[in-house]
Amino acid sequence: VITTFNQAGLDTYGQRMIDTFEQYWPADVDLMVCTENCQPRTTKNNVRPIDLLNNSPALRSFIQRHANNDLAHGRAGPPDVYNPKKQFRWDAVRFSYKVFSVSLCANMIPSGWMVWLDADTRSHSQVDHPWLSRVCPPDAMISYLGRGERYHSECGWVGYNLDHSMTRDFISDFVGMYETDKIFDHPEWHDSYIWDIVRRKYHQQNVFHNLNHDQNTKTAGHPFINSVLGTCM
Predict the structure, then answer these.
(1) pLDDT tens by residue, 111-139
(2) Tally of helices (H runs) and strands (E runs) in the chain
(3) CB contact at 8 A, 97 and 103
């Protein structure tokens, strides 16, 4: 499991995520925390903080390249769609920490499933291996929370099967959209929107496992807690 946060995130929700992970998750599942200038408290050997900025030159390059670019901080966007009340949709720098965390950790993990989990997630019930096999089935390339084609996927949870032949190519294509600034060729620039653009390139392969089985119902806007994930988190 991987995640990222800064000092404000640590104080607001990150430490709670770590504490509840240590309480409810199996001891043989690691949590890799990509930190930004903060020091979380850990009590278990399977929780590993990683200094994100020191270990990801690609992230540092992206941040420096767009330090004074209003388009990359949600202060501007395509005139036909930009909404100042929804600035997060164009805050590319904000979400780049998440994107480059995925790349960094994938390069450090040789095999198995790697699950992105947003740091504001609280585990509340025991997570066991049968449950993990249900949400990360061995024949899938990616486990995710899709919301049809009307709205972007809920990327608070994304499971990557690193043993699948196409997974690392998917991650490379996803992160490459930020490395090459191709995100700015699209209507929105946050990670979930860009992730879906890449997903559509691969979706015909039938290798995605959508945990949101009711994507056309009223609960589809909040699939995380309304899916099987909500039984534990």
Answers:
(1) 999 999 999 999 999 999 999 999 999 99
(2) 9, 7
(3) no
Distance CA 40, CA 15 (A): 6
The helix (H) or strand (E) run that includes residue 55 is helix 52-55
Q: Would you state the torsion angle of the CA atoms of residues 101, 196, 79, 82, taken in this order, to the nearest 10 degrees?
A: -70
Helix (H), strand (E), coil (C) string for 81-139: CCCHHHHHHHCHHHHHHHHHHHHHHHHHCCCCEEEEECCCCCCCCCCCHHHHHHHCCCC
Token pair of 123, please? 């585990």
Q: Which tens digit of pLDDT belongs to each residue from 163-199? A: 999 999 999 999 999 999 999 999 999 999 999 999 9
Of the candidates 202, 189, 4, 207, the one whose C-alpha atom is nearest the C-alpha of residue 104 is 4
What mean pLDDT value characterizes the chain?
94
Q: Determine how many CB atoms are found less than 10 A away from the CB of residue 216.
A: 10
Q: Which two tokens stand for residue 102?
A: 């995925």
Residue 121 and residue 233 in contact, taking contact as beta carbons nearer than 8 Å = yes
- The rounded Cα 65 to chain-centroid distance in angstroms is 22
Report field, pTM of the whole predicted structure over 0.90: yes
Residues 6+ apart with CB under 8 A from 154: 144, 145, 146, 147, 192, 212, 222, 223, 224
Q: Are 92 and 66 in contact (CB under 8 A)?
A: yes
- For residue 42, give the 3-state DSSP assignment: coil
